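Summary for the lay section of the report: proteins are chains of building blocks that fold into shapes. Here we show the chain for Anti-sigma factor RsbA family regulatory protein and then a coded description of the shape we predicted for it.
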Amino acid sequence: MTATDSVDVLVHRALLYGHEDEFLAVTIPFLREGVSQGGRPVVISERAGLLRRRLGRQAGRVEFIDPACWFGVPARTLTAYLAHAREHWWPRGPLCLIAEPVWRARTRPEIREWGRLESLLNVAFAGTPTRLLCAYDMRSLPPEAAEDVSRTHPELVGATGSRQSTLFTDPAVFYAERNRAPLSPPAEPVMSRGFAGEDLAGLRAFVADAADRHGLPRERSLALVQSVNEVAAHVVRSGGGSGSVWLWSADGTLICDVVDAGASLDDRFLGYFPPTPYRPAGAGMWAVRQLCDLVEIRSGADGSVVRLHMGRDPR
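The coded shape description reads as follows.
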């Protein structure tokens, strides 16, 4: 444990490596230290086999989680982190976690959302007995993801030690920057419909029909209908009172914009953290983020847009 580590203060580091030897030079001491302190470190990486072989018998003291199952939808991954930490990891003692996201077949909006997730981990785990080591293979890391690493991790680590990231950005600032990036324009053809308070049933039928035309399975269709209804109900209840919905298909995904031209949306980490009896605000948007593959929000003086992505296959 270094001078910057503490049992009750988050340590969030990024490991950028270009060879397996560099990866092992940092991760093996990290895991062995966790084991020696009486904990059961956690690994979520496709390099689990490499780590098992190098750890030998100590591998039985490490929990390995399949990254293909874990790194599906960013919002669900954040929820899983928090749930596992509270229910399984922290009860065993301080958490030592190695995480290496899977980047294959990620779209540009998804890559940007994973960067947001890394930033939000600094909020989610603040003041907890947690050491996070996020690994990035520079040989396959998308360039945009590489640009985010120094801004979302307070510390960078290598075989020679760790150092503070001079580019680290406050999560609230990073989040706001992400929300200023323009959304890509809808692809043709587009199906659209207006809505107001008295016709949400008609809106639900419209979205269900579009999902059926797109070939979404019933479970995915119901999830999209529920999500659109939740966002539209918020527009009616707390926004401008009426709005419009735009649907189109892109790269096998059905995309839906819920537009409120009459009001902006207060979006400070909206829907990312699970609601509690003491913090019920944002419960509806939290459910929407769990149901959809990706949710993008843009809000300003001229109104707001909530963009929902739903693919045919669950993630």
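Put simply, here is one thing we learned. The chain has a mean pLDDT of 93.
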